[in-house]
DNA sequence: GACACAATAGTGACCGGTCACTATGTTGAA
DNA sequence: TTCAACATAGTGACCGGTCACTATTGTGTC
């Protein structure tokens, strides 16, 4: 319908060459690396470039080099946690490395996602893929000659992985401290166990509970949602209440807290609850949620740093600073001495 | 470091042509539209294509057509609300239209963002841009010959806009109903007024308050964060408490609720609070938050539909169904008859 | 001054598609 | 039968860069 304006064609390398009175190849050399040119020639090209406001056509360049200058990032379709900060860190790093980042969001289950991801890798459209969603292990043998693939938020012994979301050390710290506060019976509402981070937290939970010789009311296989936190509590056998719940993230913790309030349990007097992600709503909840602050931009950046390394061999500066920090707030406290039961 | 595997070059149009025993041009025709070919020729090419697993090289195609097949989506750097669902709807629609979607996240203020956005539009890299972040009105005259730009989450009389996030009708419904429940003094904690949605809700608030002849404790200019909800309450002159707070979104409402609980006010007995976005945490809060459910995938999709229309003139099917729905929950109730004051 | 050699610069083909134009085959009316 | 007119297919250039190779200039040494 709307006619595009007529041919706003950008100047080409040959026009620059003509203006600078050199050959197109000299301009090409100038573009790739300014070495091997006489200062005088260089200056002439400099002038021509800025006069014409020349910018190289990356698409044309690709035809020879096979380098598209594009990476892709795959988002899980449904996410309880907010991937914005991860995306933000990832785009920044990608741009820093001179890449543009294509956003892909694959519906369907893990298998459909894996299939489409491999197709994308094989399409030649992108040089590498960072996926925030888990993919099927079956993919591992099929990476052959396509783009490099880095999986964040999940890992697999055979595949490259970021591994940072996976650091579950704070879970151990939580349980140690809570045990020191008199808690003897714990419960873990895990996130979606297709995610390595969820598996790592679960393992850390089991390890700590075992090591400290405290009781566990079990591990509930949730999916990062508040609903799953609520359901996890409901699934608990009557009379077998824990005094501390380690929730997979803040959202899950909200569900746990809701269940508690519906059953007349007061937090933290009757039940201590911990979250993960240090979300803003968690900080402003009543009681404010004990949680783990994550450097999510750093996670995104580091995933991208790995991908860039895999694709180009080039080392980008990773995110400085620690990835996680445990923040004690009002939702955790010394265990109440008088045992309660459901109202 | 890692050597890329040697030349996994995909088959070209000429190889397909050779195998099908036609000219490359015939294959090219076949690719663009399968019309004007003898059924027999078509079948031969079909066979060759599938035998070679041929897929066209979109980059090469661009060189002639100037169509990159790429659109960009600009994310605000910091967002209180979760844009995931919008992104998801937008990518789906973009892919449906045969476009890939590039993710861009510009730091800096609105002016820096606008500058970089215009640069991107001018780069020829993308055919269109959908921005979820507001851009400066000054940009409007400068769209000249670059990519089409559609602004979601904001609008400007001169610029195309999605307009759907902007529908603030539920604000009117909220105030009407609350007024029917006996509320006479309202307060509005607006979102970032650089966003059209925030402005629209504010206008709807002022209009409804005025029309119904109820009192307003004012409008606080927040920024979509829980912190701003908390601060808004703190900024209220002592003794001038409203009985109902219309918060810009659920996150803001959480901040309001936190302040209330710190000051011994019980919700909804002493204060009714409404949110916006129907977040999962809002549903599981105690009390559960009255909020507005949004079809965010639909918002993303419709933004993209507009962009595709602007770029190609083609009409993609917009999202069906209504965009928002008001959900009454526990955080709103009949106004308590015995007036309270801060504890 | 002559020569080898390095430092610079230029020429033309090519990447994988599309475009403009031409060539051939087919059909139907005169 | 002939020829116009249409349907179908082919030829070669071109998009804007890079690559491989060749040509020219400059420098140092004998």
TrEMBL record, chains A, B:
PROSITE patterns membership: HTH_LACI_1 (PS00356), HTH_LACI_2 (PS50932)
Domain of life of the organism encoding this protein: Bacteria
SMART domains, per database record: HTH_LACI (SM00354)
UniProtKB keywords: DNA-binding, Transcription, Transcription regulation
Keyword Flavoprotein: no
Pfam families given in the database record: LacI (PF00356), Peripla_BP_3 (PF13377)
GO molecular function terms attached to this record: DNA-binding transcription factor activity; transcription cis-regulatory region binding
Gene3D superfamilies: 3.40.50.2300, lambda repressor-like DNA-binding domains
Residue ranges of domain HTH lacI-type in the record: 11-65
Protein name: LacI family DNA-binding transcriptional regulator
Source organism (scientific name): Glycomyces luteolus
């Amino acid at each position: 319908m709307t006619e595009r304006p007529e041919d706003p064609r950008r100047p080409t390398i040959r026009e620059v060459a003509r203006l600078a009175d050199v050959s197109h190849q000299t301009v090409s050399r100038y573009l790739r690396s300014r070495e091997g040119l006489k200062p005088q020639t260089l200056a002439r090209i400099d002038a021509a470039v800025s006069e014409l406001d020349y910018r190289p056509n990356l698409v044309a360049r690709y035809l020879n080099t096979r380098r598209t200058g594009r990476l892709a990032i795959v988002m899980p379709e449904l996410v309880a946690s907010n991937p914005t900060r991860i995306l933000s860190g990832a785009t920044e790093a990608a741009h820093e490395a001179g890449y543009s980042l294509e956003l892909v969001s694959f519906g369907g289950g893990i298998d459909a996602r894996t299939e489409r991801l491999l197709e994308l890798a094989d399409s030649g459209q992108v040089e590498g893929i960072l996926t925030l969603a888990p993919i099927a292990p079956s993919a591992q043998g099929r990476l052959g000659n396509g783009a490099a693939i880095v999986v964040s938020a999940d890992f697999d012994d055979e595949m490259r992985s970021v591994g940072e979301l996976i650091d579950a050390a704070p879970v151990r710290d939580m349980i140690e401290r809570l045990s020191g506060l008199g808690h003897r019976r714990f419960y873990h509402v895990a996130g979606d166990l297709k995610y390595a981070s969820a598996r790592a937290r679960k393992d850390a939970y089991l390890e700590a509970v075992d090591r400290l010789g405290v009781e566990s009311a079990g591990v509930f296989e949730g999916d990062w949602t508040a609903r799953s936190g609520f359901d996890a509590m409901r699934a608990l056998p009557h009379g077998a209440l824990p005094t501390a719940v380690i929730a997979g993230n803040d959202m899950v913790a909200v569900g746990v807290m809701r269940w508690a309030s519906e059953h007349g349990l007061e937090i933290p007097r009757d039940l201590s609850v911990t979250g993960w992600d240090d979300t803003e709503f968690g900080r402003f909840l009543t009681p404010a949620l004990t949680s783990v602050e994550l450097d999510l931009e750093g996670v995104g950046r580091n995933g991208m740093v790995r991908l860039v390394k895999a694709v180009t061999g080039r080392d980008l500066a990773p995110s400085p600073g620690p990835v996680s920090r445990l923040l004690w707030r009002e939702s955790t406290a010394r265990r109440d001495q008088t045992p309660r039961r459901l109202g």
